């Protein structure tokens, strides 16, 4: 029988997570338990779960153990597993540093994920993460209600479809309470869909856009770090730039995407820990197990 489970609640631009310390990989984490923890009325509430486990103690992290002590075991709020979460890495790094599990380094704190090792530079207010290089690879569309929007598929370690709004359609008009319809043959494992509109220019930045996102396994969220990375990559490409910085305003705040002169891609923004506590799994309403996996 599982006893009480300690947790921390954190967020990056209101993309919020239940953080579970499990350094030796002993927690019996299941899709129904994750879904119950993330339930905003009956559980702790969050867009996903970040399990903090040593890379050597997790079968999917063991291959990175020589280069990163910690593995970010990320689960979507519906209990499915995802490869990567940009805001999650930033919150994960904040947790490691504030709990004396890791020491910040100028070159970045290595964090192992299912999409590889990310490096987080931890500041007082902002955390910047060196991300995988986004790969723009196909044209497609997303349909919301009666509106079909052309988009660009981008691989950021997880799949994205970036859709620019045109013809007077604004972000506020979109109904993202249900998942946009996409090409299932192209996105066999599901896809995060970003809708984008231009915003007024900002000093020191090459582009400025606004974004809403529907995340696979979580629904519409206030922010998505890898989604912002995908949007930034498309914005720079459309502007004919190989380097530069893009401000991406999400519902929960602002993220900045930068491709530097070395070709490294960075995601920067705030990451905050707001609460700690203990949850009794036996008191949670555990939903039936599902077969969905991302």
UniProtKB/TrEMBL annotation:
Residues the UniProt record annotates as site (Could be important to modulate the pK values of the two catalytic cysteine residues): 160, 215
GO annotation, biological process: lysine biosynthetic process via diaminopimelate
Keyword Acetylation: no
Pathway in which this enzyme or protein is active: Amino-acid biosynthesis; L-lysine biosynthesis via DAP pathway; DL-2,6-diaminopimelate from LL-2,6-diaminopimelate: step 1/1
GO-annotated molecular function: diaminopimelate epimerase activity
HAMAP family (alphabetical): DAP_epimerase
Name of the featured protein: Diaminopimelate epimerase
Organism of this sequence: Actinoplanes siamensis
Gene for this chain: dapF
